[in-house]
Amino acid sequence: MERTFVAIKPDAVKRGLIGRIIKRFENRGYKIVGMKMLHPTLEMARKHYAEHLGKPFYERLIRYITSGPIIAMVLQGENTVKGARQLMGSTQPNDAEVGTLRADFAQTMEFNVVHGSDSVESAQREIDIYFKPEEICDDWKTMLELVMESEKKQS
Ligand code: RTP
Ligand code: MG
After folding, report:
1. Is the CB of 121 under 6 A from ligand 1?
2. Which of the residues 5, 35, 95, 139 could staple to 126 if both were Cys, CB 3.0 to 4.6 A apart?
């Protein structure tokens, strides 16, 4: 099982898209093992986007991600890093496939509604920025896990 970090960015929270975005990840069947609303601090934002330090868009990106609350989530499942990014679509909404979150809800790369980790290593690093270990709730079973368990018992 793989974990990824997903954030509903401040523009999407302000636009009232929280439910519609979470729904897409739930539809895919990912298990939500962490979720909270928080207003990222400058320190969190700088850690999160450290790889972009020095790039022309860096300061704007930091201003944007600290401009309001986000919904931070940890999703668990099969190939979650790749799968979550597939649901999100390309960074540039105009290049994103119709049906992806960015194509459906965004117009510009600057306000592209959602973030997803780009590798398992980035996911762990980002989860550690936004969550304390005790905030991860993985001691419960999804319906799918319960059904699979009961089928195993019967066979
Ligand atoms: P994210 O990290 O937010 O999930 O987005 P991503 O992996 O698809 O894209 P990344 O390259 O990591 O860029 C992070 C965010 O910076 C903004 N950006 N602007 N050339 C530009 O003006 C530019 N490039 C990137 C976007 O908001 C992107 O989501
Ligand atoms: Mg990225």
Report:
1. no
2. 5
| Cβ-proximal residues to 3 (8 Å cutoff; 6+ apart), any chain | 33, 74, 75, 76, 80, 120, 123, 124, 127
Query: Domain limits of the chain?
Result: 2-154
Residue 115 known to be catalytic? yes
CATH class, domain 2-154, is alpha beta
pTM equals 0.96
Each residue of 81-129: pLDDT tens digit? 999 999 999 999 999 999 999 999 999 999 999 999 999 999 999 999 9
Ligand 2 centroid–CA 14 distance in Å is 21
Q: Residue 91 CA: which ligand 1 atom is closest?
A: 8
What ligand 1 atom has the least distance to the C-alpha of 116? Answer: 4
Contacts of 149 by beta carbon, 8 Å cutoff, 6+ apart: 141
List residues, by chain if needed, whose CB lies under 5 Å from ion ligand 2. 118
Read off the pLDDT of residues 2-58 as tens digits, 9 standing for 90 and up.
999 999 999 999 999 999 999 999 999 999 999 999 999 999 999 999 999 999 999
Instruction: Confirm or reject: Cβ of 119 under 6 Å from ligand 1.
Output: no
